[in-house]
Amino acid sequence: MATLDHPELRESLNILLKNARPRLERVLRNFEIPPEDAEDILQDSQLTLLYKWDKIRSPESWLIGTVKKKCIMYWRKRRGSLCEAVDTAILDLLAVPQAPDQERAELTCDLNRVLSRLSTRCRSLLKLRYGLGYGPTEVAEQMGYRTSSIRKVTNRCLAALTRQLLAVGFDRQPEGEPQDG
Amino acid sequence: MDKHPELSLLSDFSRGRLSRRRNREIVRHLLAQCESCCREVASRCFPTLRLWKAAGEPPADYGSAFELAWQETARRQSALVSERAEAPELLRELLAQPADRQKHLAVNSLRHRTWGFCELLLDGAREWGFQEPVRAVDLSRLGVEIAERLDAATYGEARVNDLKARAWAGLGNAQRICSEFRQAEEAFVRAERLLKKGTGDPLEKAQLLLLKSSLRGHQHRFREAFRLLDRVAAIGRKGGDGQLCGKASVMRGFLVGLANNPEAAIVHIAAGLRQIDPSADPRLYMVAQHNLILYLTEGGRYEEGMKLLETARPLYHQVGDQMGLLRLRWLEGRIGIALGHFAAAEAVLREVREKLIERELGFEAALLSLDLAHLYTSQGRSAEVLRLAQEMIPMFRFQDLHREAIAALLVFRKAAEMERATQGLIRDVSTYLQESRSARGLRFREPR
Description:
By secondary structure, chain A is mostly helical. Chain A is about 75% helix and about 0% strand. Helix content of chain B is about 75%, strand content about 0%.
């Protein structure tokens, strides 16, 4: 594919983006991307398209596919940050040395309630992490995992924990609001 | 925290932007099963799992996101067009310099450190790979130097990593063509590492896998090569890119041929040719047709090969690449011998041989000499076989002929001197030369 000159490239890009816009909006809407974050996704995808224009044979489907992928990555990243925040906070909460007994008992009880909804494997792993203060290598040794894979397993368990923590917000309709559909 | 946190705090929490103290407070609040706050955070991080929707919730308005994204794209587009307009002149300027000065410029000159220039240099290096492989390695190295110095703040870190990966893969491929397999291996490792930090563009990955499959095939690691090609074809199918599927099929055919299965090679290459659009990549189409003719010839289907060669001839001239034209003539000579047009074929092969020697392409010249020797022995012309063997000596100084290859050619020369260069020996030396190209260190076993 030959390199286009300035007006030709601008025109081609403009037409492509105009044609693709309804589909792109649908993708953003389906993934429920907040409008304030949509600009980054769109801009990054469009710039990559611009730089690789000559190498891409079906620009429109390439652009739609790239935006979809970026939407998936967007949520993956957001959930990653959330899981990390939850993990750090729980570790911090458990590490407070002079917490009153009752407060500590309540925290343990609340945490155990969430942990009880997890699979046996995740429950055991997180109990070692939170209950006994084990580091990743010790958890791997104790549970018979390879040290190279413990990070991945821990991340999966943290994701499950975060989902269970927020579970009350997933499936119940807020009071006074009608059910959709 | 007994009372509910503010919405803005929950929003920042869901993005991981809060201080550790604030995080602690919110997680403690959520652990106490505050339904409304859990729902608020869940809706921000797991929106697709939300089963309820607020009544009358207006659809998100992405108008300004599109506007702002387009403004930035248009701004970058003007800059890129200027870079691309300046690039050919900069390339001419660079190539006019001696080799050490070229590297100095690539490393130090800011004018050369643009996306447009780097891209042109990498494309140029790829073109040279078909004609002068050693030159292609030099240019690819320059391409790597420039790609490594591109400004990530201007072009975007992930995009620069993609281009760096493309540069390293190009270098690896050029080194593969020159049979420098160890260096090629290292270049591909670097390319893959960089691609992991890139945009995740599947097309970029497919191009790298395609080149790597070629390396694996030339290393005779066919199973790995075919697995890589399966991945390329899968990317092509998923993206609806027939050209990419066609490229994967042509490469598979070429590698199957390298594994001594010309019939299967013919099937795969013909399938690939049906998917490739010649106007989009005439060179690829020409190379695919060339290989198809080659395998038709190796499979003894000379008439078909000759017919296809005549159809393909205009494309060789359209692409206008000197090496391509030389290879076309070589093929004509080989088919001519098979069809019994000995005198014409001999003249063609002699002419091509001279040109290969002029270009210091020792490997090709030696292989072609063996084709000629085959013709002479079939006609009992042992004096000409001897002359041919003696004329090979100057080729030994060419850099692309390794020690073992020279040893094999010396065996041939010794046999020619003793008038014992049989067709079997010539075939053995020729096969050895082709195989040793991809397996350095392979010893030629002298027949007893």
